TrEMBL record:
Protein name, per record: Iron/ascorbate family oxidoreductase
Keywords: Iron, Metal-binding, Oxidoreductase
GO molecular function, one term: metal ion binding
Gene3D superfamilies: B-lactam Antibiotic, Isopenicillin N Synthase, Chain
Enzyme Commission code: 1.14.11.19
Start and end residues of each stretch annotated as Disordered: 26-49
Bias kind Basic and acidic residues: ranges: 31-43
An annotated GO BP: coumarin biosynthetic process
Domain (Fe2OG dioxygenase) ranges: 199-299
Amino acid sequence: MEVLGTQIRVQSLAQDGKVAVPPRYVQPAETRPKHDVGKRNDNDLPTPPVIDLSDSNSVHEELGRACREWGAFHIISHGVPLELLDEMRRVGRSFFEDCTMDQKLSYACDPNSPASEGYGSRMLAASNDKVSDWRDYFDHHTLPLSRRNPSKWPHFSSDYRKVVAEYSDQMNALAEKLLGLISESLGLPSSSIKDAVGEFYQNITVSYYPHCPQPELTLGLQSHSDIGAISLLIQDDVGDLEVWKDGEWIFVNPLHDAVFVILADQTEVITNGQYKSPPHRAITNAKNPRLSVATFHDPAKTKVIRPAFEPPKYRPVVYGDHVLSWYSKGPEGKQNVNALLL
Ligand SMILES: O=C(O)CCC(=O)C(=O)O
Ligand SMILES: [Fe+2]
């Protein structure tokens, strides 16, 4: 088992072949997944909408409904080449599955500094992370270009860096297009939300969830809402993502060619709560490792975010303060964005 500082790589634990997970991965009873894997596609439960972006007649209405009722939805005909989605999954998987642990550790992120770039395992700085997620990840700083330094990214698939850079540019354009449509769905000029967010700070996180001997006791990623403006997620065909809606955890069916959109806290504030950032989490499973790629689009830390509607329901927030509160208090529920409510 590899240990770096306080970081243990979950992939090493899974490969050790133990039948029980170490105590630090055991969730308290109230956050354990109730989900019975056989009931994932339970027909009684609703499922996140699928929106065809090429359907200009209905796209605003459907987006508006999805943002109001879910805050998370699939999009198809999104304009990103489907081969690029596959390439991104391929290079991401190759880092986790084809590299030795020593090779991976040569990219280790700083375990004590939140959101530092590289190979890591813990979402929060150690002191606040009481129970660990059953997840390893690689975080890339991709935009603005002044933050993008591909020499910090894996070079093991020979085209890794090229694929990530291309993927970053495509996701950036898609995030901007979506914020335009979302603004229009509220009767705002197309550029309103993007202008309120300012230049995107984009991070791409490839998450790798090894198979887990006790999925009923663990979470791949604890419940949280994303803190920036908008997140764009692709995943493999395993599926373990859940979204919180109307008091239930709803399974997100993996759709291979779709991009899954998750509205984040700053969009909730800018839309004055008309659109909400939904809590979501990843569960684990005993059979298959799972891969997802989340691309986060955030404001600059110095940007002040405020509602675009009167009367405001949220107080203005300096984005960097929101990030600090998230890292110091933890993501539990939506305590950080709710603390901004007037
Ligand atoms: O792996 C997933 O499906 C979820 C990832 C996620 O929510 C995140 O990284 O913020
Ligand atoms: Fe998330």
